């Protein structure tokens, strides 16, 4: 399909639609984040109980109160590797569900599935790169499992970052198919589409998540939020270069999903209240 001319499209563009999809996209971004990272931390705590480890679960992270000599290799790999493994499976399931069953349907659920897949990707590849900077979290797994030294750990982390960049770029077609609005999907509106559906959810959603976790917010989680940009940036570039502009034949009207916005706020509030003060285990 050939892109429409900017002159023709600009006369028909309703800027309010881009504000609406930005609000809905931000809400979906936040909901997907809490689903993926909530599962990540819940699995981590469950494995910690299995190994009878002591720690503290706060709104931002799971921290341990054990001395270094109380750890052993199996516990380290199990605790810090279980979350990424579960997230990887979740991401694959969400993307397959989206690609095979949801992308041809109208509504917001398909975009939620895609954001779940993207956050799951970041919980594996982005997290390995971020945690290597701080030498914490997922970094412990290759460090203890492979024992190849710090240089190889850094190279592995950089490779993970490159994988995330590649997945972001090649995910452009999938992301474009997740939107219903004919106005938003016009190629002449592609820059507005990228800003409202990608940049705003990443930036505004990340700021909202960070503020919801202050003063518990850690450097590690801040890096996780920031390195989502390794996926969002090439995804945005891929969308700008891709002329695909089709959508479902009978899309839903573009309206603010107040239920989605309320759900995102409630989930963030419940998460904060449930883990503040922090939950002590072990």
Features:
single chain, 282 residues, three-stranded antiparallel sheet, 3% strand, transmembrane, transmembrane helix, membrane
Can you characterise this structure?
Keywords: Membrane, Transmembrane, Transmembrane helix. With about 280 residues, the protein is mostly helical. It has one domain. About 70% of the residues lie in helices and about 5% in strands. The chain has helices at about 5-10, 15-50, 75-100, 110-135, 140-145, 150-170, 170-175, 180-185, 190-215, 220-225, 230-240, 260-275, and strands at about 55, 60-65, 280. A 3-stranded antiparallel β-sheet has the order 2-1-3, with helices on one face. Helix 2 (about 15-50) packs antiparallel against helix 3 (about 75-100). The longest helix is centred in the N-terminal third of the chain and has 36 residues, at about 15-50. It is globular. The termini are far apart.
Layout of strands and helices, then pairs:
Elements: H1 6-10, H2 15-50, E1 55-57, E2 62-64, H3 73-102, H4 109-134, H5 140-145, H6 150-170, H7 172-176, H8 182-185, H9 190-213, H10 219-226, H11 229-241, H12 258-274, E3 279-281
Antiparallel strand pairs: 1-2, 1-3
Helix pairs in contact: 2-3, 2-4, 2-9, 2-12, 3-4, 4-6, 4-10, 6-11, 9-11
Short description:
With 282 residues, the protein is mainly α. The chain is built from twelve helices and three strands.
